[in-house]
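Figure 2 data, in text form.
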Amino acid sequence: TQSTWGGELDVMVVDLPPGTGDAHISITQQLSLAGAVVVSTPQDIALIDVRRGIDMFKKVNVPVLGIVENMSHFVCPHCGGESHIFGHGGAEATARELDAPFLGAIPLHVDIRLTADAGTPIAVTQPDSPAAEPYFAIARQVLADLGGGQRAARTAGPTITVEE
């Protein structure tokens, strides 16, 4: 399968594994990035990678648009109560410490998992649900930081072709 992106792209999101490995370095060297959003769970051990990642992005002059806390809390499907099984607020505290914007918290919610596993994200299948709202709020903030897509267009890198 071959996919080609070119022309009028507003925003392209690339999901990378944690850390600062070869993929991260290659992308920052090969593409002109408008910014990076760093996603982490709340645990201290995960936030070590956040600090390293933000340090790497600063060294290569990629603006850090903010930090997102994923799996911020578990939402019980039976009673709707919240449990902070991985801790809570670690990403927000790290954002303050590193003077980076905190973009929001994504819950650990069964509907998010089910829709993602089905290949139809919750923002598409249940856009008005409370579980989808953090995604929209984060996307609005990132798009605003990118000048409504204008900043991304001004700093666009090369046309990218992916072949399998």
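Caption note: The first strand starts at residue 2 and ends at 5.
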